[in-house]
Design brief:
This protein is mostly helical. The chain is built from twelve helices and two strands; from the N terminus they run H-H-H-E-H-E-H-H-H-H-H-H-H-H. Helix 4 links the parallel strand 1 and strand 2. One of its GO terms (biological process) is CENP-A containing chromatin assembly.
Length: about 280
């Protein structure tokens, strides 16, 4: 029979091998197979429109969003720690400052200034509402290392994923501020170096954006993020990282080749350091 999924399969055969399908298929049918060339066509269209100087509404090329993402709020406006909404402190009142160290009160994170304060109040911290402020605050990064709270990581990864999607200069048509995007990638990289582990949001961003990367935009920053990809299966790394980099590697300059090799060397070193810290010490002979 002419079920809809069979019609979709026959239409796919007719597209590539029309001599194999002799029956007439309806013009309109449900789409069951995504066009694999879609991201490339969208990327080429973005480059053409950017070179023409005409900037239509922002369009996310590789993330499959149906509506253009809102870029009204900049990432760098969220790096300052906002006042805690639950602190209920009155300015200039000595009594309230004494109550900060009460065991029944949360410690406002905007008043966290020293490492001893962190140790004394580590179980009473109220995390900031703006997760971007965590990336530039060493004390909060220490807190993330000590307190493995899954909700904090999920909030940070969600925020970071949204910013990477909206600010990527080679995946969003009307975003031409490469210096600002470079600054954000540097901030993410510094936080990864501090934590000695890569963020899953940056890993997902690399997997989706490297096939569309030209090898030139934000080159040092992108390769720095590559060096902190978490250890996973080789087949996944090969298809998502080595494949896109190999296509650029064989057609680029010596400088680019050396940069890629240096990044992969650092990636192996980071994996080795991570595994060494997890290994049990050898028994004494």
């Amino acid at each position: 029979g002419m079920q809809s999924h069979l019609q979709a399969l026959l239409s796919l055969y007719k597209l590539f091998c029309p001599e194999l399908v002799t029956i007439t298929l309806p013009g309109k049918m449900k789409t069951y197979f995504k066009n694999s060339e879609g991201p490339w066509k969208a990327a080429i269209s973005a480059v053409r429109q950017r070179n023409r100087g005409s900037s239509p509404l922002a369009q996310a090329v590789f993330l499959g969003t149906t509506q253009p993402p809102s870029r009204k709020r900049k990432w760098n406006t969220q790096l300052a720690i906002p006042a805690s909404s639950a602190s209920n402190l009155e300015e200039g009142t000595q009594k309230d400052s004494v109550d900060l160290f009460s065991t029944n009160e949360t410690f406002p994170v905007e008043q966290l200034q020293t490492f001893p304060q962190l140790l004394q109040n580590i179980h009473r911290l109220e995390f900031p509402s703006q997760m971007g402020s965590v990336l530039t605050n060493p004390l909060l990064l220490h807190y993330m290392n000590c307190i493995r709270d899954e909700s904090i990581y999920l909030r940070l990864y969600y925020w970071m994923g949204q910013i990477l999607q909206e600010e990527c200069t080679w995946c969003v048509i009307d975003n031409t501020d490469e210096n600002e995007f470079k600054s954000f990638l540097k901030t993410v990289y510094k936080a990864e170096c501090f934590l000695q582990e890569g963020f899953s949001a940056s890993e997902e961003f690399l997997y989706k954006s490297l096939p569309l990367w030209d090898g030139s935009s934000c080159r040092p920053e992108v390769l720095n993020l590559v060096s902190w990809i978490p250890l996973s299966s080789f087949s996944e790394i090969k298809s998502n990282i080595y494949g896109p980099l190999a296509q650029l590697f064989f057609t680029s300059s010596i400088y680019f080749k050396c940069s890629v090799l240096e990044s992969l060397k650092e990636l192996l070193q980071n994996w080795l350091n991570c595994n060494v810290t997890c290994m049990d010490p050898e028994p004494d002979s």
